[in-house]
Design a protein that fits this description.
There is one protein chain. By secondary structure, the chain is of the alpha/beta class. The protein is 40% helix and 22% strand. The chain contains 10 helices and 14 strands. It has a 5-stranded mixed sheet with strand order 10-9-11-8-12, with helices on both faces. A 3-stranded parallel sheet has the order 4-1-5. Strands 2-3 form a two-stranded antiparallel sheet. Helix 6 links the parallel strand 9 and strand 10. The protein is elongated. The model has no long low-confidence stretch (mean pLDDT 95). The protein binds glutamine (GLN). The site of glutamine has 13 residues, from loops.
Amino acid sequence: MKRWILLAVIALLGISLMAGILDEIKARGYIIMGTEATFPPFEFRNEKNEVVGFDIDIGRKIAEALGVELKIIDMPFDSLIPSLVTKKIDMAIAAMTITEERKKSVSFSDSYFRAGQVIVVRKGYPPIKTLEELKGKKVAVQQGTTGDLIVSEIEGVQISRFTRFTDAFLELMNKRVDAVVLDFAPARAYVAMYPQLIITSDVLSEEEYGIAVRKEDTDLLEFINDVLRTMKKSPYDLLVEKWFSQ
Ligand code: GLN
């Protein structure tokens, strides 16, 4: 009899250890999303100092589908993966490019946006069209981003690395650097905000954004992919599925 109880306790313990992060999130009633909010239109602060944007809305859809609240932690971009690994956040939604290097420490969802780097300068400054033309120039990037990586590979560039893009752009406007390199959609947003700036290059890289989760959280990864797939389906896609799926 005693032995039977012991076995039952061991089995229950086993089940609770096996229960994934999704059960933990549902039990606590919220999911924690990490992001870096100087990246409009993906994540930025509105007039009320609330973090809003495309990625935040995706985070809300995921939380909604789980029936929990969304908590957002705004942190330096290069803290996102360490914070995931040390369980300070459950997912990073931060216009984060899916890269082989990052995949060594985290898993990525299906891609949800195509992106690429561009070069921004002040209007009236000789247009910089290619990465090679950045040689001998002072360039501001955000620490730990793919822009940082690409510019770091060019010899003879003076790089200034910033935690916040707002600071990188202040540096550009105050003429302390010659260019900022970043993803095209936020570049457009900053150029729209500061009319004295201009994008002078084509899109210089091919990148895709994914949502990052811990490698062991396969249940959360599947759930996120389901939410993304559902969001991507148009009413037309749903009709095709309804009438032609057999
Ligand atoms: N897409 C770039 C990267 O993943 C920049 C992201 C960001 O600054 N939020 O490195």
